[in-house]
Amino acid sequence: MSTESEIKSASLPASAPGENFEVRQTHPTEDYAPDPSKSIKLSKARQALVDDILDLYCCKPTVEKIKRYTPDCQYDDQFVYANDRYKMASQWYGLPKLFSKSTTNLLQIVTNEPGLIQWKYEQSWKAKLIPKVATLNALVSLSLAPDTIDSDFIQVKYHKDQANDKDYSHEGFGFKFKKWQADNVMKIMDIPELKEFEADKGAGKEYVRQYGSGTAEAQAPTKELDPTKGT
Q1: pTM for the whole thing?
Q2: N or C: which end of the chain has fewer CB within 10 A?
Q3: Pure H helices in the chain
Q4: What strands lie across the sheet with 116-127, from one edge to the other?
Q5: Which stretch of 135-144, 152-161, 183-192 has the lowest confidence by average pLDDT?
């Protein structure tokens, strides 16, 4: 099967900055509840990548795990828009300062293509200052660096985390806050490990892609998450 994401990843050079690797998609519903019984099995190298990313979600950052991202990587979720690995590292190292515990309860791999891995997951977050656990479902899309796809240490060019059916527009006040947060959080946190990634501040960047909305009409085609279509 040939999909848009396969064609796109195959045609992009590894030197292209992370912005070029964004997967745009909307979904029929906001239901991202995972069903582990339907999860697609991954190769050893791909499973190792997923395990390292999940450890980052679970407040277990290390330099080696953050090196799963290319220097010019992109991270995009409801609260953050980070456009290099230095900014990305500050986010992962910042999580343990905000949360006392984070646990991946359920996981379902729904897409396994040469240049793309996607999973639905359920994550529980326990904040340090609020005695309450928040549990959320979302969809993660990892666009892979083309020159690492067949290696033992696969890297990520674009990491998107979506919690509702619409994609991100990259416009308006919400986006400005996302970008400001990513650009400045390292200035208020003492994170010695960031020195390892200071050189990444100069990694290749391109203009922010703006879409007007996160709907199918804004270059975010509707996609069914069909686990039977993995490779």
Answers
A1: 0.88
A2: N
A3: 4-11, 44-57, 63-66, 85-98, 172-184
A4: 81-82, 69-76, 156-162, 133-144, 116-127, 99-113
A5: 183-192
